[in-house]
Amino acid sequence: MGKIYAGYLPLIVGGLVLAGLITSCKKDHTSAPTAVPIATLGLYEVQSTIYRRVFIPVSQIGTVKHTYYTVFDTGSSAMTMDAEGLIPASMITSSGITITGDSLVVNGITVTKQTATLTYGDATAGTKEYGNLAYATIIIGDANGSVSTKRIPFFLYYKAVDTKTGTKLGAHENDIFGVGPNTSFSSLAIASPLSYFTTAANVTQGFKLSKFNKTAYSTSGTYVADLLTIGLVPNDLSSAGFIMHSLTHTSAGYSPNIPATINYNGKSIQGSLLFDTGTPAFVNIEDPNATTNQTTLPANTPVSITTTSGFSYQYTTTTDDNLTQVLNPSFTHDPRTIFSIDFFADNEFLLDYTNHRIGLKN
Question: In CA terms, which of 22, 153, 179, 262 is 20 to 30 Å from 326?
Fold first, then answer.
C-alpha cells in the first residue's frame, strides 16, 4: 500500500543555481510529512435470518496464535475473550478462573485477580459475561491484513450466560471487540482496543468506518476489504464531510449518545441516539409516550432523525431491511434510541478518541 514517482544542456548552469535556491528554501520551509493512518483493515459481514453482524478477526493474543472472530461493536468498549484456548483448561472452573497471588502470566497473557460481571443488552434480552481483567499484546486482523498492539487490557471471561433463559453460551460465542468512546464496566476501566495505539504527531487516535456493503452479507461470512481505518488524518477531521458531535463526559468516560429529534408515524420526540454495529437487526425507538411496551412498525413507514449538530438521516422500513421497533423505556429500562447495523450501510462513521467526538456522514 504505497506509491512512488523528473533538464537540458543550455540550462545546466541556471539549473544548478536554482537547485541551490531550492535547497535554501527547504531549510526554512520544511513541510510536514504526509499523514498516514495506522492501518486499514477489512471486516467479515455475516447474516443469519434477519440478523446481521460484522466481525473483526483477532489472530494472536499473547503467544496464542489462533484466529477468533469477534463482534465489532460501536455500542460498547473493551475487547472480551473467552478463556478457553487462551489459558490452560485446569485454570478454568464453573465458578471462576483460578489465580494464585495478585496475577499470573500464562501464554504471554497476564491474568489478574480483579473480577467483574459485564452485562450487554437491556432488561428484555441480553448477555452476562463473568471473568477477570487481563493484559496482552494482540494482533488485530488476519492474512488479509493485520496490525499489532502494545500490551493492552481486555476482559477474559470464563462463562457467558443468556440473561433471559439462563443458558450458558458456547465457547467464544460472545467474544466482543468494543470500540466505543467510554471506559467499560464497573471498576475495570477498559477502553477500546483501538484507543491504545501510539500515533504520529499528525495522526489522531480514533477510527472511521466506510459504508458496509449491504449485498455482501452471507451465512458463511464475506470478507470486505478496507472497511476500518485505524488512526485519523487531518482530512478526516476537517474537510471530509463528517458532521462532528462533541460527546458528554460521564463517570464512565465519554458517552456515545447523541441528542436528536426522532420522527416516525407523524410523531416527533426528543431523545438520544446510539449508533450501534452490535445491534444486529432492529432499530429501537424509545418513546416514553408509547402505549404498548413493544411494537414493530409496518413496512413502508418513514423514519427520520436530526441531531442537534445538524446531521440528518431518513429511511423507510421494509419487510427485511431497516426493521424498526417502538418501545417504552419503562419496559426496556434504557432511554436511548438505538440505530442498528443497517445504519452503517447508508452512512460513514468516525470516532475521534482524542477530541471526544463522533462524526457522521451520509
Answer: 179
